[in-house]
């Protein structure tokens, strides 16, 4: 249910007014649902194929006019029918048209408005001057308005200790054009080079830049694809300089948010990390490991500010006004003012915008004295938002927020009634809310991660009740910070309790065996998920028994078939291969792509030359998210498959970029949600119980020459297995690495440069590995692996496993633990 709701809807409106709870009748007003879906489809496709928009808009207005003319014609025809028998015949013949034609007209009109908004947006997003600057790769002085709190991380530079400087990325506006900025941080200090859970945690707001600040910087532009939320990528050559402070109307929010995050970081453990996310949606302090477990247990929606948070704010003001006996319009005005301040505080992310607009619609309906219905309010909110910004149709956060609300409004009550027939009603009501939201969101979730979280509903049952408490208490702490800092600090410990509970539930749930069911990837997996969700709902909710039986049969057979397709090959391989492999060398041709596993956490060293073989290896091994990725250097045979990592990798350690193309590659990974860090010797971190350490390159990064000899060398040491990955280091660089005295004995070595002759026998003798893994393509033109390398490994007592003859190679520790234990090696084919 990532990105969804936490129960309830903005303004506290569920479809109670039209649910008929307790009467056995349920009427859902879905008349606007086709209109909202048509607008969403038009926006999603239109922003991706802008050349077709003028034709589409004209056709839609033509359909609208035709439908309206047809409605008028039908009405006139019915009124002019003379005799009663003729009147009855006409009425019977036109009843369908009267019902359908207005809906068609509304769908076409709404879609035409969205298409027109997209056309206007395209003109605004592509000013000729910026397009020309991007085409010519000119570096110019730009004035930007910060639209997102900058995220800071480690990067290559040369001005700081060990050649490390802080780099930032943030969304901004350039003369009204949305852009994504990558630049050196204004702060001169670099964050520490030690990381846990495979990543560097964000540093909150150390740059001092706030949303609304006006900054200037010299930068180069790169145009994005039409459907991207940002029209241009901005690559700064200098750090941004603040030219103007943010307006006071929004500056207060950045200061308050920063103070709250700083206070929460003083709280112990993961409860302190999670609290700002639960209260104000700031996840900058959440470690990569906790973030991965929140996603794996379907709890990440708790840190996505949306309907539940807005409902709490509005409900609190409305209740206070009712207790004080103030007039209705005063309560509504107070609620809307508080809601506006809350949106500024948490920043207007897509899910927040959806929830806030829906809350405004509900409040206006309440002010007019009309009963508010949840689904129509949601549909109006979606249509209005897409007309305002059609690019939100492609936002996963917006989609998940809207779908979760649909699930709560449409599915929660009937599911609760059905479940109450099989279990105690309180338990049924507790289960129906997370179940409804997960069913509605699952088709989109499998696009993000091809798996179904089987622990999602139980985890939400355990963690869900604690979320409102953490939210309310966290907001109280925010309000008290400027007024009574000491009292705010005391209250923060009360807010920490439910936050720590949620973190503990996430950790426990994600580590349970069978927590994830592998699923088909891509659009096919989403389509199958939609079909099986419909079948499941028929099995649970259909009025007729034969429909329930048919739905249950389709659902059971479908889930078994999909699970077999997605997980079946893995089950078969699981019978043949080591049950708990630790290292997997993918058969991706002439290149490197090697996985490491520690329980449910995965690291990948390089990607190979192409995306498809890497995707096949990851899917075949059941690997979804990657906690850590190491890109040793930027040769094509090591980074050619990098697009497979977009949206999949938590943290990326990279070698020194060689050119602008390499820097843009890393920027795209950042834009897809990865934290990118330029690696240097001394960095360390953890992958579960496995510790990793960067051994090479050494020295200031601005003096490191890119290429094979600058390959990132990483050592992994777990309780059962140790390994080192040498990238493409040549003999002289290997000798220099040996001279650093940081090299230890290991169980497994990933042989450098696919087994070339340019190797240091002294280094391999010092490593003393029991196994050397050679990632190499069959019948390659380089003669890899060379006889010199194979003879060298034989002399130092290192056995060989190679992907060219053996295909996929899996390595696991034997009965003995640590470096003294025996190794088990499994491969798809017998060694030649």
UniProtKB/TrEMBL annotation:
InterPro entries: ComA-like_MBL, ComEC_N, Competence_DNA_uptake, Metallo-B-lactamas, RibonucZ/Hydroxyglut_hydro. Signal peptide: none annotated. The chain crosses the membrane at residues 59-77, 98-122, 302-321, 328-346, 352-368, 375-392, 398-415, 427-448, 460-483, 490-508, 520-543, 550-572. Residues 590-779 form the Metallo-beta-lactamase domain. SMART domains: Lactamase_B. It is a multi-pass membrane protein. It is found in: Cell membrane. Residues 1-24 are annotated as: Disordered. Keywords: Cell membrane, Membrane, Transmembrane, Transmembrane helix. Gene3D superfamilies: Ribonuclease Z/Hydroxyacylglutathione hydrolase-like (3.60.15.10). GO terms for cellular component: plasma membrane. It comes from the Bacteria. Pfam families: Competence (PF03772), Lactamase_B (PF00753). Residues 1-23 have a biased composition (Gly residues). This is Competence protein ComEC. The lineage of its organism: Bacteria, Bacillati, Actinomycetota, Actinomycetes, Micrococcales.
